[in-house]
Amino acid sequence: MKKGFRIHEFDNVATLLADAADEDIQIIGATIDNPVYCCEPVSYGHKIAVFDVAANADVVKYGVVIGTAIQAIQAGQWVHLHNCKSQLDERSGTLDLHTGSSQDVEYE
């Protein structure tokens, strides 16, 4: 079974330690009782929700709030720029989903 690493007991996300899709993920580190079903393709190093996260709720990693859910996120879904807004970087909503490059600045 593939693994995800949950850093702190208050975290509602875990970082995948391998690419995953449509499979159970064992959560290590700050463990939880049951595997989390990864319900969509998620790349190694990206986050999945380990619990349901309501719209406008905090997204917690490292035991600290790293963002706000901009829509409801179900356990096992990819947590990234399309459903989470950074509380640290106001420009996070303008970044490309896959490359992270800025979409609000044109370079000549």
Can you walk through the features of this model?
Strand 6 and strand 7 form a beta hairpin. The protein has 108 residues and is mostly beta strands. It has strands at 2-6, 13-16, 23-29, 36-38, 47-49, 58-61, 64-69, 78-79, 84-86. It has one domain: Archaeosine Trna-guanine Transglycosylase, Chain: A, domain 4 (Roll). It has no helices and 9 strands.
Q: What is the helix fraction of residues, given as a range? A: under 10%
On the 0 to 100 scale, the average pLDDT is 88
What top-tier CATH class fits best? Mainly Beta
- Major beta sheet, strand line-up: 4-3-1-2-5-8
The strand count comes to 9
Which fold name is given in CATH as the topology? Answer: Archaeosine Trna-guanine Transglycosylase, Chain: A, domain 4
Q: What is the count of distinct domains?
A: 1
Residue stretches low in confidence (pLDDT < 50, at least 5 long) are: none
Largest sheet features: 6 strands, mixed
Percentage beta strand: 25-35%
CATH architecture: Roll
